[in-house]
Design brief:
two-stranded antiparallel sheet; 16 strands; 43% helix; 646 residues
Length: 646
Amino acid sequence: MPIVLFEESSLVKKGKKPEKTGQKDPQRFEGSSPFKGSSPFKGSRSPQEGAKAGQKGWLRLRGIIAFGVVFVFIAVIWLFLVDFAVKKIIEIVGTEVVGARVELASADLTLSPLGVTLEGLKVTNPDEPMTNAFEVAVVKATLEPGPLFMRKIIVKDLKIDGLRFATVRKKSGAIKGSKRALVKARAIEFKKQFEMPSFEKPDLQAILAGENLKTRDIIESLKSDIEKAKGGWASQIKGLPSEEKIEDYKKRFKALEKSTKGSGFMGMLSGGAEFLSLQKDLKKDFKKIKKANKGLEQTIKSYEGRINGIGKAIDGDIRRLTDKYLMPSGMIKNMTLMIFGERVAAMAEKGTYWYKRLEPFIERGGKGGGEVEVVENLRGSGAWIRFKEKEPLPDFLIRKAMVAVETERGIISGVIKDITPDQKILGRPTTFVFTSNALKGIRALTLKGTLNHIDELKALDELSLKVEGFGLKDTNIAASALPLTVKNAVIDLDLLAGLKAEAEGRSLGSKFNMAFSKVRLEKDKSTGNQMQDVIADAMTGIDSFRLRGSMTGMIKDGALSGEKLKISGDLDKIMERAVASLFTKQALGFKRELRAGIMKELGGDIKGLGGELGGLENLSKELSKRFDLGKINKNKKDDGFPKIKF
C-alpha cells in the first residue's frame, strides 16, 4: 500500500480538486520508503518548480555562510578575548583579596585537555609595595568537564612551579583604600613592648614636673589629717576640767584641811566625809584628763610614724621612676623576650593577615553535608535548591595541588589536597604536606597541617613545622637592634600552632622549641646605646643556647588581639648578669640625683609637717600641765592626791 506523505497537495491549497484514485499523483510516493526505487518525478520540471528549487538552494547556502560567520566570530573571541578576560578577572579579584596589586603575565584557556595555564603571577606584599609576597612562574590546572554541566568547577590536578617568596618589584604594588594600614598599626602597638631600652640619662626636671609623686600625695594627706586631728582634740580638751577648776579643787582641799585642825573627833568625821567626796570628784576629772592625754599621745605617735614613713615613700618613688625612665626591673629578668619578641610578633601578625585573606578559600557560610541549601537567586524570584547527592561535590574543588617552592637553598615540594570553601559538602578537610631532604645547609624540613572546617562551629586548623640542621652563616641576628652578626650557627626547630573556632573569633595557641649549636657571634661597630652594646658583648661568648616560647591570642576581624607572648631560655641568666652590672652603675648616680631633686621640691613640705605635729604636741603639754596641777603632794610616790591626816 502506498504511503501518503502529504494529505493535501499544493493543488488543494490553490483550490483545485485532487485527481481520481488510480491516476498518478506527482505528490504521492509508492513503496515503503520515498527514497527507494525510481523517483516519481520523471521528465523535465515546470518553470515554477525550477524557480522554487533554485530559491531553496540559495537559502541553504546563506544558512551555511551565516553559520560559518558565527563560528569564525566565536573562534576569534576565543582566540583573542577569552584569555584576556581570564587574565583580567584574576588580577582584579586577586588585588581585592590581597589588598595589594596582583599581576599576571598571561593566561591560556584550553579545550583539549580542558584547563587553564597561568604564567608570571605576581602578588605584592601589602607591607612592602616594592616587594612581592610571592610570585609563580607557571600555574597549570586541569578541569573535569562533566561537573561543568552542573555549574561546578572541579580541578583534577593543579601544578604550581617556580613559587618564590620576597622577590623585588620594579614598580610599587600599593593600591588606594587598603585596610592593611589599620591592621598593621595594631601590630606596631603590640611590638612596641619589645623595643630595646637605653641607658641614656633622662631629663630629671621634666620627670619631676610631669610625674605625680606618691610622696607628695602622702604629705598632702598627712597635712590634712593632722589639721583635722588638731581641731578634734582642741574641741575635746575644751570639755575637760580647766586649770581654774583644778585650782579651785586645790583651794577647797586646803580650806578643808585648815578647818579640820583641832576640831575634835566629830569635826574630823564631818570633814573627812566632805574630803572623800571632794577627792572622788577630783579623781574622776583627773581620770578624764589622763585618758585624753594618753589618747593624744598615741595619735601623735601615729603621725610621727607616718612622717617617718615618708622616707620609704621617697624610696618607692625613686625605684618606680628609675624603673620607668632608666631600666624596668622586670625587663632584666627576661631579656630573651626583648631580643626575639619583636621578630616573633611580626611573624604572627603577618601570618594572621594572610590567614584572613585566604580563609574564604577554605570556609564559606551555608548548610552542607548533603542537606538542602537555599541560596538567594538574584535574577528573579524563586531559589536555587541543592538536594542530597549520592556523591556530593562542592561548587569549587581542587582535588590535588602539586607545589614546588624555589628557595636559595633548593626546592621544597609539597602536596595540598581537597581545597574547597565547602568542606561540609565534601566531608573532608584540607590537608597539606611539604618536605625536603636535599636543601643546601638544611638536613631536613617537614611542614604539614590540616584545615578542618567541616563543622564551622568546631573549626580547627593545625600546623606543625620541624626543621633539622638549619645552618646560618654571616646573617644578622633576629633582633636587628643588636650590633651582632651570626658568623655560624646550626638551628633545630619544633613548632606547633593551632586555631580553634570560638564565639568571638579564632583563638590562637602555639608553642615552639629552638636549639642553637655551633654558635659564633661577632659584634659589629658600637651603636652608641650602652644597653645594646653590653648585651652584644655578653652574647659573643656564647656557643650554644636554647629558646622556648608560646603565644596565645584571638583573631577577630583580620587582626590579632589579646596577645600573650612568652619567650625564655638559658640566655636570660647570661644577659641578666651583664645588664645588671651596667644598670647598677647607672642607677646609683640616677637615684642620687633623683633623691636630691625630690628633697629639693618636697623638703619644705616635709618640714612643715613637723610644725603641724607641734600643734598636737602643745595640746598634749597642756593636758599634762592640768594633770600635774592637781598633784598637791608631788613629792609622794603615789598618785599625788591629797590624803586625810589623822
